[in-house]
């Protein structure tokens, strides 16, 4: 499996150019299992060009396509894209409606490519609040790709990290009521994780945010507990394959300790500890 990873990527790169050299620095055995992306900066990208904000969203489709394709070619397991938050309803109605139109356009154009490339589509969020037409198209695309076994793409739509946690707890309460075990109900991490929209998926190892904002914006609050954060100044419509490779290369340089220590840092002998503390060695 590891050997075949990245092979499909090199097939579309140009030997010896910058992307190729960067891809060569990436260790296929240590790829993130799951990448999550906060796609930000569409509006500012448009404003810089004196265009309406929706032009930025339209231009944001190409990087979605490029990132999905690159993750699939790298042999990654999961990609989660933050397309619409529960807070985004506060935007002007025309902008929100345009986002649904773009989503439907994306699904129509991309479905054949998703099928060809063995990509499975999934949605996380409260999609029951979406216009019926967008819900239908999403359900159809999810169904059509449900037997694919390659990259899984989670589109986070009408998604909120707090809403997800509330939904998970309510599901556990409902389950306990059905089973008549409400009195003894106690939660643990495993129970809660089992009711998240992403249940069964590995947590993201790498969270990318475009446009330079240093915020989490209510995204995957539970799942990103130990994710490595990578923020780029690039606006989402300008995000290219090379930017994703840069993020993965940077991720592989990080020293991930999950609250523990690297082996080199944990070799303090009991004698040394005793000396530092000024107490006799045990
Ligand atoms: C954030 O930029 C972007 C969004 C809220 C929408 C993301 C949508 C797309 C990339 C379009 C297509 C996506 C799919 C999945 C079909 P912003 O508007 O907050 O930018 P700003 O911070 O510069 O105003």
Strand content: 5-15%
**CATH H-level homologous superfamily name:** Decaprenyl diphosphate synthase-like
Number of domains: 1
Total strands: 6
Helix content: 40-55%
CATH architecture name: 3-Layer(aba) Sandwich
Secondary structural class: alpha/beta
SSE ordering: HHEHHHEHEHEHHEEHH
Regarding quaternary structure, what we see is single chain
How are the strands of the largest sheet arranged? 3-4-2-1-5-6
Shape: globular
Low-confidence regions: none
CATH topology grouping: Undecaprenyl pyrophosphate synthetase
Q: Which whole number gives the mean pLDDT?
A: 95
Radius of gyration, CA atoms, in whole angstroms: 22 Å
Gist?
By secondary structure, this protein is of the alpha/beta class. It has eleven helices and six strands. It has helices spanning 7-10, 18-24, 42-48, 53-59, 61-74, 93-116, 132-144, 161-179, 189-193, 241-253, 270-277, and strands spanning 34-38, 78-85, 120-124, 152-159, 206-209, 228-231.
């Amino acid at each position: 499996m590891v050997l075949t990873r990245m092979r499909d990527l090199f097939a579309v790169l140009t030997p010896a150019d910058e992307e190729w050299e960067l891809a060569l620095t990436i260790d296929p055995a240590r790829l993130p299992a799951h990448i999550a992306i906060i796609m930000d900066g569409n509006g500012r990208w448009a404003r810089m060009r004196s265009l309406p904000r929706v032009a930025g969203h339209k231009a944001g489709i190409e990087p979605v396509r490029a990132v999905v394709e690159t993750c699939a070619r790298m042999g990654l397991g999961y990609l989660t894209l933050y397309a619409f938050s529960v807070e985004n309803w506060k935007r002007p109605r025309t902008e929100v409606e345009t986002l649904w139109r773009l989503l439907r356009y994306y699904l129509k154009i991309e479905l054949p490519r998703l099928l060809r490339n063995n990509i499975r589509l999934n949605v996380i969020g409260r999609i029951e609040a979406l216009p019926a037409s967008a819900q239908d198209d999403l359900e159809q695309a999810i169904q059509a790709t449900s037997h694919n076994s390659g990259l899984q793409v989670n589109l986070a739509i009408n998604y909120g990290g707090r809403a997800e946690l509330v939904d998970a707890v309510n599901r556990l309460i409902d389950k306990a009521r059905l089973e008549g075990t409400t009195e003894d109900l106690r939660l643990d991490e495993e129970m809660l994780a089992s009711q998240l929209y992403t249940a069964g998926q590995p947590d993201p190892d790498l969270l990318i945010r475009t446009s330079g904002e240093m915020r989490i914006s209510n995204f995957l609050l539970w799942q990103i507990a130990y994710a490595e954060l990578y923020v780029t100044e690039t606006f989402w419509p300008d995000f290219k394959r090379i930017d994703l490779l840069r993020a993965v290369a940077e991720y592989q340089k990080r020293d991930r300790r999950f609250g523990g220590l690297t082996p080199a840092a944990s070799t303090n002998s009991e004698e040394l500890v005793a000396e530092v503390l000024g107490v006799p060695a045990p």
